[in-house]
Design a protein that fits this description.
There is one protein chain. This protein is mainly alpha-helical. The chain is built from 13 helices and no strands. The longest helix is centred in the middle third of the chain and has 37 residues. It is elongated and about 75 Å long.
Length: 316
């Protein structure tokens, strides 16, 4: 016959453990926030990891190009004939990608050209996100005459072709360094961010939590930066991430046309422009910088697509 005392003790232990288990399941089933849900989704997307690894490698190359080549990208030696075929088995050596028309290492120039392109892309994205995001937030939240003025200014800038306008602006400068190109592209590129942010803020300010915060006496700045902006910034981040690759392409296009970066700055667009003059005899001089440019733009666009899919519940 079983011991009654032991049976009661086990029952008490089981009853005590039951709420703990229930609490554990409740904690595990706790709903995630938008950003937590997005990160959970991103971690299971191969496209996100592939693009992130590529971009991390590009950032390391841009920050520390000396780790990848010991050759001087500006050192020209005419004994290195540009018709010499690339030595594809000489990994990380100056002759790996061959030489250009001035006897400079194409591999070294591809490595060092990463810095200018990344700086322009990131710099333009930061500026347009800050300017366009702030204007869009003010227009969407306050509305009225302020919204009308900002919207009309945005429409005017939208009417200017992006590359054509950048060519006109850059043509006014005799010395076109990286910061000049960043400001010229940002001067015309903030409009998309502004419109996207304005639409998101208009939707967010109508939410119940914003109405409750306003009823409790929260100030305008607190409502904007603590309640509206965190819930309206997701589309802005997606657009900015995808646009970053476009800004890198725009810089290369302007440099190719002779209106972007100029010597002594090392740029993929400059090298593509010079290599196009002898593309029939020396196609590899154009292939490698163009391939690096395409890979960089592809990585940013792929990352933007992954972030968009993760932040938009309708696409899951």
């Amino acid at each position: 016959m079983p011991d009654v005392t032991e049976t009661k003790t086990e029952a008490v232990v089981d009853a005590t453990a039951a709420p703990s288990d229930a609490e554990g399941h409740k904690a595990q089933g706790k709903p995630r926030s938008l950003w937590g849900d997005a990160w959970f989704d991103l971690r299971h997307r191969p496209m996100f990891w592939i693009s992130s690894i590529l971009l991390l490698l590009l950032l390391v190359i841009a920050a520390f190009p000396g780790l990848f080549t010991s050759a001087d990208p500006r050192d020209g030696d005419l004994t290195n004939h540009f018709l010499t075929k690339p030595e594809l088995t000489h990994f990380f050596q100056p002759d790996w990608f061959g030489y250009d028309g001035q006897g400079r290492s194409i591999y070294a120039r591809v490595i060092y050209g990463t810095r200018a392109s990344i700086m322009v892309g990131v710099g333009v994205t930061v500026v347009v996100t800050l300017v366009g995001g702030l204007l869009g937030m003010l227009a969407g939240y306050f509305g009225g005459w302020l919204d009308s003025v900002i919207s009309r200014i945005t429409d005017i800038f939208f009417g200017i072709p992006f590359l054509l306008g950048a060519m006109v602006v850059l043509n006014a400068f005799t010395e076109r360094k990286v910061y000049v190109v960043i400001l010229a592209l940002a001067f015309l590129g903030w409009t998309s961010i502004c419109r996207v942010t304005r639409s998101s803020v208009i939707t967010a300010k109508q939410a119940d939590y914003v109405t409750a915060a306003r009823a409790l006496g929260a100030g305008t700045s607190r409502i904007l930066f603590r309640h509206v902006m965190p819930n309206a910034i997701a589309p802005t981040i997606v657009v900015a991430t995808i646009a970053l690759g476009g800004y890198i392409s725009a810089e290369a296009t302007l440099s190719y046309l002779g209106l972007g970066l100029a010597d002594p700055t090392i740029s993929w667009g400059i090298d593509i422009s010079e290599a196009s003059k002898s593309i029939r005899d020396n196609p590899h001089a154009l292939l490698f910088p163009a391939g690096m440019l395409s890979l960089t733009v592809f990585a940013f666009i792929m990352l933007g697509d992954a972030v968009r899919d993760a932040l938009d519940p309708k696409l899951r």
